[in-house]
Automatic annotation (TrEMBL):
<keyword id="KW-0472">Membrane</keyword>
<keyword id="KW-0813">Transport</keyword>
<feature type="transmembrane region" description="Helical">
    <location>
        <begin position="40"/>
        <end position="60"/>
    </location>
</feature>
<comment type="similarity">
    <text>Belongs to the 4-toluene sulfonate uptake permease (TSUP) (TC 2.A.102) family.</text>
</comment>
<dbReference type="InterPro" id="IPR002781">
    <property type="entry name" value="TM_pro_TauE-like"/>
</dbReference>
<dbReference type="InterPro" id="IPR052017">
    <property type="entry name" value="TSUP"/>
</dbReference>
<feature type="transmembrane region" description="Helical">
    <location>
        <begin position="124"/>
        <end position="142"/>
    </location>
</feature>
<keyword id="KW-1133">Transmembrane helix</keyword>
<protein>
    <recommendedName>
        <fullName>Probable membrane transporter protein</fullName>
    </recommendedName>
</protein>
<feature type="transmembrane region" description="Helical">
    <location>
        <begin position="5"/>
        <end position="28"/>
    </location>
</feature>
<feature type="transmembrane region" description="Helical">
    <location>
        <begin position="162"/>
        <end position="181"/>
    </location>
</feature>
<feature type="transmembrane region" description="Helical">
    <location>
        <begin position="193"/>
        <end position="210"/>
    </location>
</feature>
<dbReference type="Pfam" id="PF01925">
    <property type="entry name" value="TauE"/>
</dbReference>
<feature type="transmembrane region" description="Helical">
    <location>
        <begin position="69"/>
        <end position="88"/>
    </location>
</feature>
<feature type="transmembrane region" description="Helical">
    <location>
        <begin position="222"/>
        <end position="241"/>
    </location>
</feature>
<feature type="transmembrane region" description="Helical">
    <location>
        <begin position="94"/>
        <end position="112"/>
    </location>
</feature>
<keyword id="KW-1003">Cell membrane</keyword>
Amino acid sequence: MIDILVCIIIFIGVFTQSISGFGLGLVVMPLLTQVIDIRLASPFMTLIALTTLVSISILYRKSFQFKSIFGLIISSSLAIPLGIEFLTKVEQKITLTLLGIIVLGYALYSLLEFSYPVIKSPKWGYVFAFLSGLLSGAYNTGGPPIVIYGTCCQWTPEQFKSNLNVFFLCNVIMLSVSHLIKKNYTPEVLRLFEINVPILLLGLIVGFSVSKFINVWLFRKIVLVLLVGVGLQLLFKVWLFY
């Protein structure tokens, strides 16, 4: 039963990512932690993200602007090991609480549609990227800081999909190496990944096939509303049962 639930969660996350260009970690991680231990979910999610982002980055490679994110990749890479160390050392109740706050906070912030300031100095990008690396290392949810930065830089929709996916891909490569060094790829992690490779590919195919028929703005709103519920449910469960 647990394997089936994991497969459903992976399909939803990959489908969301292929359509909107974000949401893989934000959707999958809080849901996975309802089913499996967060220390198992994090390295497993890294393998899923690596495969997904390689596919999407190839598709949107023509819109990629390397100069826009090279410094961001370096800054984020420096923070990733710190995030992984945090996950392994801190009590699970605290890590899950922070994950719930991050998911809920980002979803509410996006739904309220605050006006974003225009960022002209690239130095701010290093700060956002470092925060993204910390969240990626701990939770595979490095999206919010870098999405906010891209919005403030007024990236086009094409640049968003391309730059974000390549940025996250570089993050995931660094994450994969870090998890490998930490010996976090246990037989159970590899078993879950093997089972979900066909599900992942199905999510990509379905997502790319229907994306042209879907109102992306409306889809993102629906995802954000669902993330509010997921964040609240995660916080409720942590403080009620842990």
